[in-house]
Amino acid sequence: MSTSIYLHIPFCKHRCAYCDFNTYAGQEDAIPAYVNALIKEIEFLKRQLNGALDVSTIFFGGGTPSLLSAPQFDSILRALNSAFAVSPNAEISLEANPDTVSQSQLDGIRQAGVNRISFGAQSSNSEELRLLERTHDFLTVIEAVAAARKAGFHNLNLDLIYGLPEQTLASWQTTVQRVADLRPEHISAYALTLEHGTPFGRWANRGLLPIPDPDLAADMYEWTTEYLQQSDYAQYEISNWAKGEEQPSAAGLPSFACKHNLQYWRSLPYLGLGAGAHGYADGMRYSNALRIKTYIDRLINPEAQDAHYKFPQTPAAVNHHKQTQVDEISDYLLNNFRLTQLGVSNTDFKIRFGAGLAEFFPAEIESLLADQLIEKKTSENSEVFRLTPRGRLLGNRVFIKFISSSPSSSRLS
Ligand code: SF4
Hints:
Blueprint: E1 3-9, E2 11-12, E3 24-25, H1 31-49, E4 54-62, H2 70-83, E5 85-96, H3 103-112, E6 116-122, H4 126-131, H5 138-151, E7 156-162, H6 169-181, E8 186-191, H7 199-205, H8 214-230, E9 234-237, E10 240-242, H9 259-265, E11 270-273, E12 278-281, E13 284-288, H10 292-300, H11 302-306, E14 317-322, H12 325-336, E15 344-345, H13 346-353, H14 357-360, H15 362-370, E16 374-379, E17 382-387, H16 389-393, H17 395-403
Parallel strand pairs: 1-4, 1-11, 2-3, 4-5, 5-6, 6-7, 7-8
Antiparallel strand pairs: 8-10, 9-10, 12-13, 13-14, 15-17, 16-17
């Protein structure tokens, strides 16, 4: 089974007012040391695994990975290729802020082997971008997309956020239309969440920020689903749409679906490298030290290099736990139900857990089917449970139903 690799790049030029990611502004001086530490973490895994790991996707996420130079990406990718059996067809993605890329940098990144870019566009409306404290305007997005195309990128994603304070349906529709007109292969649209500890969260608590209207956000979502479908984007996940022929091996999965994220949504293994990164491998979930300096110190410390850590942990990991079967089932359902077409395959569920979904959760399945939150699709050799359009809007109700129930105990091994 192949594994995916996520590398976290926790640097940003400015911290946006809604963001609760593990990222830091004004610490760019630490980028060279951080890149060295990432390479040390890769080399540590290389010694642990002895090269025996098939890798099908690599994802540089952040933060703002595009703050790294092309030679820095080149050195990290060389280390990854030396440590693991990276597939020649591997999807190698990079998250970028549109105002942090130049033509020469994109040319260099493409030459280093990156073949997919995800730009954080968020909105085409200048007022909304200002409110979010983004450091770019929509013209910069248009220019970044053109530069990426010129550099030879044939797989682009644009990220959007809807349900902003005081955002109108018309303004959101304009954003989606302008983004679709740029013809990216992939579009992600996530609803804004007011996260505790962010300026947005604090302003909302003090009544200084109008709380987004959830009914309006639902209207935006429904309109987006219809509009993108008419524009030849296939929805394959609650918040993700892609172009491309349907994959012969998987109904409803367009060829430009993000292969890296599919690894998460199918509950398959991935290694998380870098400050605050999370990983899941060999039935273990773990997370690395959050702070940049702590992460670097833990990896350059020669004693840590000699110490014995059992895969998938490295000296950077500060938390880890072995998953119970109940954990595994909950995570599996939370992830796989997000896949709007593929859903939860009973065959795959049986292979993983020894019995079908309805045998583990008879009452929950019956009630969710009755409430028309999920549907069952049966064909000659498969049975699939997936969210209905109504269930996509009320996905949390479906997830809570499974998480708050114990799987039928006679089925647990
Ligand atoms: S650029 Fe992205 S990661 Fe950085 S602060 Fe803004 S939202 Fe967060």
